Structure formats: C-alpha cells, structure tokens
C-alpha cells in the first residue's frame, strides 16, 4: 500500500503540470457528425477594432458550417487604433495584454506579456495595421521586419503561418486612394515576406459595387463596418481565408444569418442579413479570397 500511494502521488505530480499546459482542449463531446479539419487551427490575432468587426459573427459561421470546434481556436487581441508599431511597442515594453477567444474549444494562454502569449504552438498569427496607416509603405518599412522576426523567434511552431488582414477604405471620397495603397502594401507583404492575405477590404469593396451598398458606404461611422452585412462579409472573408481549405467547406452556401441586438437594429446604417442577401454577402467574400488584389464587379 505504501508503494501504491507513492506511485499515485508521483503520477499526480506528473499530471498537474500537464493540466496547466498552455494548449488544452476542453472536455470533448461527440464530434462524430462534425466536419473534421485536415489539421488543427490555432489562430492568434494581433488586432485592433477592425479585427473586432471582422470576427464578430465568425463563431456563428463556424458552428453553422458544423466544423469540429475542438480542432480550432481564434484569439483576438485588441489595441484600439493600433497596428504594427503598437504591437511592437507592446512586445518591447513587456506590456500585459489580453486576448479574447472568439471561436473554438482549444484553450491557449491568453493573458500575460506578449512574448509569453507568442511562445505557444500557434498555427497562424494574423497581423493588422492601423487603417489610417495601411496605405503607405512608409508605415510598414523598418517595422514589419522586426515584428515578423519576433513572431517567428518566439512561436514554438517554427512553421507558423503569417497572415495580414487588408483593411477597407473609409469613405466614398477617400477610398480610391486608400484602396490603391492598401493593395500595393499588401502585395509587398506577400512578395517580400510570403505573408498570406485575409482580404476583407477587397470583399467590402466588392460589396460596395452591389445592391448591398448604402448611403453610409457600409460603415457606421466612416471607419467601422455597419452592423449586419458589413460585419457579416468581413467574417465570411476570415472564414474563407482561414478555414475553407482545411475544412473543404466553402463559405458559399453557409446558412448562418446573424442575430442583431437592439442597438444594432436601431442604428440607421445597419444592413440586416436575410435570405435575400445572405448568398450575395458570401460571394463578395469568396471572390475576394480567390482574387486577392482585385475588386470584382457585377457580383449577384
């Protein structure tokens, strides 16, 4: 009995550290009827308010597609108005940061200094740039190289994939210049550093050339996306760019229709998503991912 108790104590001592591991999957339920991914997807977003817009309806899309949520997670970190320089500053100053799990059941350490958050087995790290800096390469040069190096050095997965979420233009007057600059900068990120794209800005511009566009140019304040269709298209783009290939389930045909809160319904700029425009929203995202740097006209 003495040796049996000793063995139990030893076993417990070995298991406790495992239970505190940064990567843990919540208690499993029956996943037999869920669509299995080709591989686990653990996504970290170095974001801002635009990543909040982009992922607001993301969980609904994933669940409606019946994907195995025990194979994935997406954690979104927000520095309001922040971009590459601000995330660099957060890393160098050892600032405490907090990430919110938007979707999935894989648990990762999500609160702490940034180097600790990065020192996990992430499959994808998404980089964001502040939208008022995203259309000039001068705001990337000399900074993006450092952020890439930090991510690659810190992440335990040395095959971690880097992605960049392309912002959308702000107003009717400013968008032509901003869109051109956004595309130029995104191309350089891909060509110079091999970064893949989540082309939200292209998807939103696709939608602006359809019957979806409203007087507010699909924004609610000339910056952030309108509730309903704006955020929905963004989430569809995140889904298609991140999950379509590993799940073999495209966003096109997804039955999800987001439920809107009272405040969202009462906003004059809201464009509700319903059966009359759901597929059109999805196509705007689909074509953006298929043709990342070109706006597609005439989507129906």
Question: What order do the helices and strands come in, and which of them pair?
Answer:
Blueprint: H1 2-19, E1 24-25, E2 41-47, H2 49-55, H3 58-64, E3 72-78, H4 84-92, E4 96-104, E5 106-107, E6 111-113, H5 114-118, E7 124-127, H6 144-154, E8 161-165, H7 175-193, E9 196-198, H8 200-208, H9 229-247, H10 262-265, H11 278-290
Parallel strand pairs: 2-3, 2-7, 7-8, 8-9
Antiparallel strand pairs: 1-5, 3-4, 4-6
Give an overview of the whole structure.
This protein has 300 residues and is α/β, with parallel strands linked by helices. 40% of the residues lie in helices and 14% in strands. The protein has eleven helices and nine strands. The strands form two sheets. It has a seven-stranded mixed sheet with strand order 6-4-3-2-7-8-9, with helices on both faces. Strand 8 (161-165), helix 7 (175-193) and strand 9 form a beta-alpha-beta unit. Helix 8 (200-208) crosses helix 9 (229-247), helix 8 packs across helix 11 (278-290) and helix 9 packs across helix 11. The chain is globular and about 45 Å long. The chain starts with a helix and ends in a 10-residue tail after the last helix.
């Amino acid at each position: 009995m003495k040796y049996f108790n000793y063995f139990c104590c030893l076993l417990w001592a070995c298991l406790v550290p495992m239970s505190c591991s940064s990567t843990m999957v919540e208690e499993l339920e029956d996943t037999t009827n869920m669509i299995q991914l080709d591989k686990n997807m653990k996504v970290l977003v170095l974001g801002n308010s635009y990543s909040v817009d982009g992922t607001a309806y993301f969980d609904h899309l994933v669940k409606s597609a019946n994907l195995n949520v025990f194979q994935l997670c997406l954690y979104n970190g927000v520095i309001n108005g922040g971009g590459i320089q601000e995330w660099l500053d957060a890393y160098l100053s050892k600032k405490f940061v907090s990430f919110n799990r938007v979707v999935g059941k894989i648990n990762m350490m999500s609160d702490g200094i940034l180097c600790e958050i990065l020192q996990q087995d992430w499959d994808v790290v998404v980089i964001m740039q502040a939208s008022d800096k995203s259309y000039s390469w001068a705001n990337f040069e000399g900074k993006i190289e450092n952020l890439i190096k930090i991510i690659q050095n810190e992440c335990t997965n040395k095959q971690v994939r880097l992605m960049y979420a392309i912002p959308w233009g702000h107003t009717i007057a400013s968008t032509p210049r901003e869109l051109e600059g956004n595309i130029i900068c995104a191309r350089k990120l891909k060509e110079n550093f091999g970064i893949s794209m989540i082309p939200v800005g292209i998807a939103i511009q696709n939608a602006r050339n359809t019957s979806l566009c409203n007087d507010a140019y699909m924004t609610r304040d000339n910056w952030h996306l309108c509730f309903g269709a704006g955020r929905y298209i963004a989430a569809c783009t995140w889904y298609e760019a991140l999950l379509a290939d590993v799940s073999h389930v495209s966003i096109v045909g997804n039955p999800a229709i987001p439920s809107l809160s009272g405040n969202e319904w009462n906003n004059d700029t809201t464009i509700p998503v319903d059966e009359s425009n759901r597929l059109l929203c999805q196509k705007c995202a689909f074509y953006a991912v298929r043709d990342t740097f070109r706006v597609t006209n005439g989507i129906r």
